[in-house]
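**User:** Once you have settled down, spend some time on the protein underneath, comparing sequence with structure tokens, and judge whether sequence predicts the tokens.
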Amino acid sequence: MKKICLAILAALTMWSWSAMAAIDAQKAEDFVKDLTQQGIEQLINSNASEAEKQARFTKLFNEDLDLDFIGKFVLGRYWRTATPKQRADFIDVYRKLNIQTWSARFNEFKGKRFEFLGSESSKSADQVFVNTQVPMPEGAPASVKWRVKETGGKYRIVDIIIENVSLAQTARSEYTGYIQKSPEGVNGLIKDLRAKLK
């Protein structure tokens, strides 16, 4: 009898988790639709000046991308050994560099619209991938996959995978490699990123 009860409980738990995952996936997709349509597409197709676009991208990225979460991931094992000041300095410059980079990068999609291709589960229960593509003038559409994380009912982007290249994984590989080779370690990376901002 005890085994039957445990089996029923396990089945109900799996069912409720699946139901929750499905709900999260739909909300995550709606979140990305709003981000791309009302944020990116509307912004890059506007007649706003580059300065205004960058200011609006700054607001967009601060609200819809979890750059603190991404920053911790890309710093890898060095996050654990970094001092509080190093962590704060790295997150600050990493945030600014991403805003500068992506406000320019998304201009490549000017005049185009994101097409949605559904979602797929992630190994993390609080994350899901939302699949999109952008038709290009020549060749196949550009694949853009958004990794969305939910925290306390709020959805935010924690990675963007363009043509199967993860921005977070790429940055992690580049940054940890730099720290390994730099005599100044994390401080050396922070200086290098600040130089790139200028």
The first helix runs from residue 2 to 44. The chain has one domain: 24-197.
